[in-house]
Amino acid sequence: MSVDPVVLASSIVLRLQTIVSRETKPGDFAVVTVGALNAGATSNIIPDRATLLLNIRSYDNQVRARALAAIERIVRGECATAGSVQEPDFEFYDQFPLTRNDEAVTAQVTNAFTAHFGAEAVSRATPQTASEDFSRIPDAFGVPYTFWLLGGAEPDTYRAAVAKGTAFQDIPGNHSPAFAPVINPTLSMGVQAQVVAALSYLAKGASL
C-alpha cells in the first residue's frame, strides 16, 4: 500500500546521471553529484521519506540553470511515476556565484608577481571547480577582481611533481587530511603576495 522512498530515491539517482551525459552540450562543463542518500533506520520498515544531497558545479550560469531545471523535472517526474502523493521538497543552500577574473586586473597582478617572485614561480591556473564566496563582495560593489592560488610545497617536491605532470595529484590540497603546507616560506610568500598585489595599485614604483 506504500510508495517506497528508497526505491524512488534510487530511481532518481540513476536518472540524474543523464543530466551531464545526455542533456549537457559537449564542450560545456557540468558536474551533478549525489553526495548522500539518507532513508530509513532499519531493514524491515519502509521509511516515510528519503533525502538526497546534491552538488552542482559549472563554469556557466546558463549551464547551471539548465542543470537545476533538469533536476527538478526529473525528481517530479520520478515521484509522479512512483505514484507518490507527497510533492517533493527542494531546498537550495551553499550557493556561490561564478568567480570570473577580470583580464586587466589579472594581467596587472600577474606582472607584479612575475617581477617580484620571478617567472618560474608564477603560472596561470586552470579553471577550478572549487566553491568560493569571495566574488560576492566585489560583485556587490561592481569592482573588478582577480583570485589567485598559492602553493605551499617544498620547491624540490613541487618541481618533481611538475616534471611528472602530476603536481595537483601528488601535492595534497587544502581539503585533504594530508594537507600540511611548509610553514616557511609559505607564510612569507603569502604575505608578500598580498603586499605586492596591493602595491601594484596603491604605490606606483614602490618596492617590497
Automatic annotation (TrEMBL):
One Pfam family of this chain: M20_dimer
Highest taxon, organism lineage: Bacteria
Peptidase M20 dimerisation domain mapped to chain residues: 4-78
Protein name: Metal-dependent amidase/aminoacylase/carboxypeptidase family protein
